[in-house]
């Protein structure tokens, strides 16, 4: 993995970041509703909603990570939520995923003193699960991710 540089993405990188995350969505069989404008807005400003790292080599973009801060009262510390981690097929199995997650951990520790990483892995993705297991991730006991969007989210926003 020599010759690969990992750097912070800027709004000017939003198109390439979006293409990488669209490839991840396709690999997972997920829809991809994001676009470059959304990502540019998310990673810019004085209080960005997210941060992103790009891993680039001589052949182009080889990896990307999108992550955000979180706080756990149960853990008593800030952490980082990695919502997306993409590695190009040509770079898989060479340690780039670990390098990207390590760079995320360092950046989050520097920015908001993060002391842990949280992420989700699909039950039907044993290769990803094995990767995270090898790194030392463990399933969170008693946790089940839930989400709200669309009409329910809009209705909740309307509550005083």
Q: What is the compact description of this entry?
A:
With 160 residues, the chain is α+β, with helices and mostly antiparallel strands.
Which keywords apply here?
160 residues; alpha+beta; Aminopeptidase; five-stranded mixed β-sheet; 5 helices; 5 strands; 36% helix; globular
What does this structure look like?
This protein is α+β, with helices and mostly antiparallel strands and about 160 residues long. It has a single domain, classed as Gcn5-related N-acetyltransferase (GNAT) (Aminopeptidase). It contains 5 helices and 5 strands. A 5-stranded mixed beta sheet has the order 1-2-3-4-5. Strand 2 (about 50-55) and strand 3 (about 60-70) form a beta hairpin. It is globular, with a radius of gyration of 16 Å.
Number of domains in the coordinates? Answer: 1
CATH architectural category: 3-Layer(aba) Sandwich
Structure annotation, total helices: 5
Largest sheet: 5 strands, mixed
CATH superfamily (homologous) name:
Gcn5-related N-acetyltransferase (GNAT)
- Order of strands in the sheet with most strands: 1-2-3-4-5
